[in-house]
Amino acid sequence: MSKIALLIPCYNESATIAKVIESYQKVLPEAEIYVYDNNSTDGTDEIARKAGAIVKYEYRQGKGNVIRSMFRDIEADCYLMTDGDDTYPAENAREMCNLILNKRADMVIGDRLSSTYFTENKRPFHNFGNKLVRALINRLFKNNVKDIMTGYRAFSRKFVKNFPVLSKGFEIETEMTIHALDKNFLIKEIPITYQDRPEGSISKLNTYSDGYKVIKTIVSLFRDYNPLSFFSVCAAVILLVSIILLIPILINFAHTGLVPRFSTLFVSCTMIIIALLLWICGLILDVVVKKHKQLYELLMKLIPDFIFEVLFLLLVIVVF
Description:
The chain has helices spanning 17-27, 44-50, 63-73, 93-101, 117-120, 124-140, 157-161, 172-182, 207-225, 227-256, 262-319, and strands at 4-10, 32-37, 54-57, 78-81, 107-111, 153-156, 187-191. It is an alpha/beta fold. The chain has 2 domains: 4-225, Spore Coat Polysaccharide Biosynthesis Protein SpsA, Chain A; 227-319. The protein has a 7-stranded mixed beta sheet, with helices on both faces. Helix 1 links the parallel strand 1 (4-10) and strand 2 (32-37).
């Protein structure tokens, strides 16, 4: 039987964690439920343990840090990730896991935005932020993912064990999506019925600071994953400014044969050189990124064989 691991990162979710665990136990009775407590102060860990979950601890604050530990520590064939705030329905869990176990997807996304999210969520800036992030990523990475920041996802073992977690906080979902798009993992989306937090459950998200972190992450990952486009845009902006500064000087020189503003001419020429250097950097880094993708694909194929050879050598050493 394939092993399913349910992953629930938690920080002060005592009001809802027991209900979440019980609802998933009914739908996935064979799954091992892991609750990773992230420095809760309201007894979330004890409630989860009494409800039947395996409780572990991550003392570095932030959802990204929790997921990094989960992905490193837990061994399974299918990983289902949800939140402990009772906003994601358990009814879709079996369908999401079956897509992973039947090799029809590497990452299944529980799509909130195509169903009830905008009517259930009472925070207008969160709604705007989700739309903005979706538009940015789909434009920058030329795709059409409907829900970038959902915390309800299922993963294959291949994705989990080959995903380098860099984010520390709530921007982790954005990083997951971009990594899957860039590395050509098979993505499926399932519309889910989202419900807002019940009364007494408090959101840990800060609209402005977390929104800034997400936008910063998108820009950083766009630079890392698509450097030619990123540096070409930067070079184009600088080149445009330098041309705007240079045109009046050229017009004046054409009429009088004089260059009255040498300082402006010097700044303009310097900016043209900088723009050219940025574009060349983009070209060089684009080659590096393509080579990295090639190495990543090769390692995805070679790692299982390599591990097998190491185990065989260890066996030989033990025997002889």
